[in-house]
Design brief:
Number of strands: 11
Helix content: 25-40%
Largest sheet: 6 strands, parallel
Radius of gyration: 19 Å
Number of helices: 11
CATH superfamily of the largest domain: inorganic pyrophosphatase (n-terminal core)
Bound molecules: magnesium ion
Structural class: alpha/beta
CATH class of the largest domain: Alpha Beta
CATH architecture of the largest domain: Alpha-Beta Complex
Strand content: 15-25%
Length: 299
């Protein structure tokens, strides 16, 4: 039998790693990762004594693969083998092809972990439930993100019960605090959670750091802007935006590298708060609150 892998997107986040691990276990496949594991995910894996999945650089011709937490080819490692299933919670991208019909599960919920938890709710071990809870808490920013649905909250409660976690909020904060540990290198931090999108004729790189303050980035603002400018050139982009998201305040300071920062301020109907920075109250989600604004404005 050909080997079946389960893998999520490059620049893996907690949801993509955990979805791959738990789903692989349930279908007797092998989980893989498409990049380095971040500190938050490391904490989750350690907490429930689960090993890091193996690093995979491509899916070979004779291999099969289940894709989780994305359906965008651009976010995946090269796939020469056969895609057999997709499980995701992002908009349908439409750039993946399969030779035969496959099972596709895409739901408008806060995380892929939610979908996988719902599939196997009655057959989860304590560890699996704990891991999936981490996936939900990470992606929904402890239910604060507007991507959060009632189903996410409901499933999280059930998972917490199975995993023996009493205070979901406190556990979520402990988890998210690991994501706030920044490296000394601004460029590395910007690329940690970085997505390229198109809006009209413009190409954007949008990075997000989920923090419990702004200062850890804003105190080095010019270094960050320089790193963003470099990334912009390397990737042939019109703009690189950095969402400095304060999850406690539930707001984002958006740093802007690119020719005309005023144009970005205008898209969000904001005034420049300080040089190359606008303040976006209530904004936590790149997918729901930043990308659509740009796509509408630049359409
Ligand atoms: Mg993800
Ligand atoms: Mg996700
Ligand atoms: Mg995310």
């Amino acid at each position: 039998m050909n080997k079946t892998w389960v893998i999520g997107h490059k620049n893996p986040d907690t949801d993509s790693i955990i979805s791959a691990i738990v789903y692989a276990k349930k279908i007797n496949a092998t989980p893989a990762r498409a990049g380095e594991i971040n500190q938050e995910t490391k904490f989750a894996l350690k907490k429930f004594s689960v090993e890091e999945p193996v690093l995979k650089e491509r899916i070979e011709k004779d291999e099969k693969v289940v894709i989780v937490d994305t359906n965008n080819k651009e976010e995946l490692i090269p796939i020469n083998g056969e895609i057999v299933e997709i499980i995701d919670h992002h908009r349908l991208c439409g750039n993946l092809e399969t030779p035969a019909p496959i099972k596709v599960t895409i739901k408008p919920v806060g995380s892929t972990s939610t979908i996988i938890a719902e599939m196997f709710l009655n057959e989860l071990t304590k560890e699996e439930a704990g891991l999936l809870l981490c996936g939900i808490l990470s992606d929904t920013v402890i239910f604060r993100s507007p991507t959060t649905t009632e189903l996410d909250k409901e499933i999280a409660k059930k998972l917490a019960k199975i995993a023996g976690i009493e205070d979901i909020e406190a556990f979520g904060k402990e988890l998210k605090s690991k994501a706030c540990v920044l490296s000394e290198d601004p460029k590395e931090n910007v690329l940690r959670d970085f997505k390229i999108i198109e809006a009209g004729r413009k190409r954007f790189g949008i990075a997000q750091l989920e923090l419990m303050d702004y200062e850890s980035v804003m105190n080095k603002k010019s270094e960050y802007l320089a790193a963003m400018e470099e990334i912009k050139k390397e990737n042939n982009l019109d703009y690189v935006l950095l969402m400095v998201t304060n999850i406690l305040e539930e707001a984002t300071k958006l740093l802007i590298a690119g020719e005309n920062p005023e144009e970005i301020a205008k898209a969000f109907e904001k005034k420049m708060e300080e040089e190359r920075c606008i303040y976006l109250e209530g904004v936590l989600s790149r997918k729901k609150q930043v990308v659509p604004v740009l796509q509408r404005f630049f359409a």
